[in-house]
Design goal:
- The protein is globular.
- It contains 16 helices and no strands.
- The chain has helices spanning 2-14, 22-66, 71-81, 89-105, 111-131, 136-153, 157-172, 177-189, 193-206, 211-223, 227-239, 246-251, 261-274, 281-292, 296-309, 314-326.
- With 328 residues, it is mainly α.
- 77% of the residues lie in helices and 0% in strands.
Length: 328
């Protein structure tokens, strides 16, 4: 463009004297002005299309690396990543908001800091909704974050605000089970236990082979003190392949405590093993329980599973299996 400006300027100054008329002068001036405007536009486009996206993506990567090690520095880079005008604004704000939310769900940051940063995450999603108000995902995620915001200081205004976004998300995608999980959470926070159960049951009805829906229904029944229903759906959760963190699964152990102690123990331990435990003591305990009740086949089965998890126990397990085979 600089070369173009020089050429235009030379033509303007050295043109054929016979062409120096009012119309020709205006045309040359217009071309010169257009070139200046285009040069400025190109500079800002280059800044928004290349420079700013590069800087923001770099800050975003730094924030992901640092936030677990140095929270304050990680948040500094995170906020800088959304401070510039770029063609990636929507994606950068989404990533930043989700990073904040996911971090707080799994960490023990001070209450006041949580408020400040969760409000920042909510503001980012609200800005995205200014551009795409009918986006299902944005409405769902802001509803999820606001629901969590309620748990920080129990201000009931967040329940009704979250409900507005969750209802919008459902209206945009009424057959998506996960949105109803958020509605269930909202109803539980309002103390509407029966409504929450109906919503969780409806989510299951949308896809009765989806293990995660049974997990949400399990938690809802458990909160409602419907223990048999919770137990039934916990078993379905695992059977349909949805994996639960072992810490969460252990919480439900009381559901399996009955008068038939050995049988109930076996039932719960089998659930843990099926859930994909990495602790060899669970299948090892199962092997011993099955040996105790005379079920050789299952005793050997779970002994072998314990070795798969902990190969160092092979000699001990070989002796265990040998003792079973030699017993009458």
């Amino acid at each position: 463009f600089m070369v173009f400006l020089v050429v235009v300027n030379n033509n303007y100054n050295n043109g054929d004297k016979n062409q120096v008329e009012e119309g020709a002068s205006i045309n040359s001036y217009f071309i010169f002005l257009t070139a200046v405007v285009l040069s400025i536009a190109l500079f800002y486009s280059y800044k928004n299309l290349i420079i700013n996206p590069y800087k923001s993506l770099k800050d975003n990567v730094y924030s992901q690396i640092l936030i677990d090690r140095n929270y304050e520095l990680g948040m500094k880079y995170l906020k800088e990543s959304v401070s510039r005008d770029t063609v990636l604004d929507l994606d950068l704000r989404t990533t930043a908001a989700n990073t904040i939310f996911n971090y707080y769900v799994s960490s023990g940051i001070a209450k006041e800091q949580k408020k400040e940063d969760l409000d920042f995450a909510i503001a980012l999603y609200k800005k995205n909704l200014e551009h795409l108000p009918d986006d299902m995902y944005y409405n769902y995620k802001i509803g999820e974050i606001i629901n969590y915001r309620f748990s920080v200081d129990l201000d009931e205004k967040y329940i009704s605000e979250a409900r507005q976004y969750v209802d919008k998300a459902i209206s945009f995608s009424p057959n998506r089970p996960r949105i109803y999980y958020m509605l269930t959470t909202n109803q539980l926070m309002e103390g509407k236990i029966d409504d929450a159960i109906k919503t969780a049951e409806y989510a299951v009805s949308l896809n009765d082979k989806f293990g995660e829906s049974y997990w949400e229904l399990t938690k809802t029944y458990y909160i409602a003190m419907k223990k048999e229903k919770a137990k039934e759906n916990l078993i379905k959760t695992i059977n349909f392949g949805y994996r639960i963190s072992e810490d969460n699964l252990i919480i439900f152990e009381p559901l399996f405590k009955t008068r038939e102690s050995v049988k109930s123990q076996i039932e719960f331990l089998e659930l843990i093993v099926k859930n994909g435990t990495k602790n060899y003591l669970y299948p090892s305990t199962l092997a011993n329980l099955y040996k105790e009740i005379g079920d050789k086949e299952n005793a050997i089965k779970y002994a072998k599973i314990s070795v798969e998890i902990n190969p160092s126990a092979k000699e001990k397990v070989d002796n265990f299996i040998k003792s079973i085979n030699e017993s009458k």
